[in-house]
Amino acid sequence: MMLRVKNLESGYDNIKVIRKASIHVSPGEIVTIIGANGAGKSTLLKTITGLIRPRDGEIHFDGRETTRLSTEKIAFLGCSLVPEGRQVFAPMTVKENLLIGGYLRHKRREGRGEGDLDRIYGLFPRLKERENQFAGTLSGGEQQMLAIGRALMGGPKLIMMDEPSMGLAPLIVKDIFSIIRRLRDEGNTVLLVEQNARAALGIADRGYVLETGKVILEESAAELLKNKEVQRAYLGKEKKEIWER
Predict the structure, then answer these.
(1) How many domains does the chain have?
(2) Which domain does 16 fall in, by range?
(3) Counting Cβ atoms within 10 Å, is residue 65 exposed (0-12), middle (13-18) or buried (19+)?
(4) Which of 39, 182, 183, 195 has its CA 20 to 30 A from that of 205?
(5) Model pTM?
(6) Contact 188, 27 (CB under 8 A)
């Protein structure tokens, strides 16, 4: 098992956000977590990566308990997060952002990451075209590509993505999700938090529905797409029309 989260509780100050949540991700899967705003999706990812300390429960990554490890140690083990809002280093070039992502490989004595640049540029040709451009001048879609590329430069065993479609035009969203599917096809493992439920379930193997911090449903992506309650709550007609344009 690549990731196993058991009875996790987490939150901020005196506010409990995640309530006895349990999920798992197997190697080579795309698993998506869907839910409304405020359901706790981002909090769950931040707790897995150590950015938020869990109050209770267990987290196991790649056969090792990581519940109380620091963010740096969890990242070193191969768990990478593409954060919500992209958070690229705006005053640095595209290439410099990517090479920073390769620091983990260097720390693990796997090289400095320069050799992975060609792979990233193959996935995202626009980044190659703009490698000497400052990241802060890129479009939103290009910054999202850069954030994903930066995470991949570290050679992660699991890549977690927090709302990669946020604020992007539908055509760019399709490009991003095509890349995520390609990553899975190449053997990568992906945990995807996404409010665009139809798009996420369209590429995922399995999915979880998170509601007020609790996992209320786990099914294959195909079953979730057919589920009437999921359709009513997350797959409305308007969302479908936007995605299919």
Answers:
(1) 2
(2) 3-78+157-244
(3) exposed
(4) 39
(5) 0.90
(6) no
